[in-house]
Structures are given as C-alpha cells and as structure tokens.
Amino acid sequence: MFITSIKTAALATAIVFATAGASMAATWAYVDQDANVRKNHSNGSQVINSIYEGDKVKVIGQWNNWYKVQIPGPDGWVKAGALDFDYYDGPSYPVYPSKPGFGFGSSFCVDGKNAQFCLGTSY
Fold first, then answer.
1. pLDDT tens-digit readout, 56-80
2. Which of 28, 111, 119, 120 could make a disulfide contact with 88, Cβ separation 3.0–4.6 Å?
3. pLDDT for 92-121, tens place per residue?
C-alpha cells in the first residue's frame, strides 16, 4: 500500500512539472463585446463577474467554445465569441500569486464532464 501511494504521488508530481512550462505561456485577448463571466463553462452556470468591450484579459483555460479568463475579481468562463485574440498588445492587469511559495503561472487544471480540478495559484 505504501509503495502504491509513493508511485501515485510521484506520478502526480511528474504531471505537474511536465505541464508547468506550458502553463507559464500566457495567452492574452481583447474583449470584443460585453459578456458575463460564469462559474463553469455552461450557459446555465452562475454569473460571477463581467468583462466589458475594450478590456484585456488573460486566458488560462479552454473547454470547447468557452475560455477561462483571469481577471480582477473572480476568474471564470466566457464564450469564445466575446474574445478577440488578434489585437492584444500586452498585459493590462497586474497578476500576483495568492500565497507565498507559488510562482506566476504555476496552475494545472483538469476538466471533467461535470467538474474541474485545479492545482496552483490564482490572484
């Protein structure tokens, strides 16, 4: 049992380190139209924030035609049609890790059918 636990922990650690480099590359987008930011990638999901035409946002995830954005206030999901990836020239919001010891871009997320699991930081 102990060996199985060690193997599982080693595998989880390897996955986090293997994906850390990819997650550090930021994708930025320009908000093309006002949109609700939802808790999950679904039209029926709770609205937790808003983005407005002209805002610049960091895209931190994708699920089909939904993008997860990191913005001041709660992060959440928006439909792809609200974002434009062609006209962005750099970050607009400062991003700070929420806890000491975690670096910028150190998150790792796995999306499932009914849930999302993330390790790492947000601001």
1. 999 999 999 999 999 999 999 999 9
2. 28
3. 555 444 444 444 444 555 555 445 555 555
Residue 33 vs residues 38, 49, 115, 123: alpha-carbon distances, Å = 15, 14, 27, 24
Q: 0.70 exceeded by the pTM?
A: no
- How far, in Å, CA of 28 to CA of 30, rounded? 7
Name the helix (H) or strand (E) containing 109: strand 108-111
Boundaries of domain holding 11 = 2-119
Q: What's the one-letter identity of residue 61?
A: G
Whole-angstrom distance between the N-terminal and C-terminal Cα of the chain? 37
Count of structural domains within the chain:
1
CA–CA separation, 68 and 80 (whole Å):
10
pLDDT at 86: 80
DSSP-derived 3-state class of residue 35: strand
The CATH number assigned to the domain holding 73 equals 2.30.30.40
Which DSSP letter does residue 81 get? G
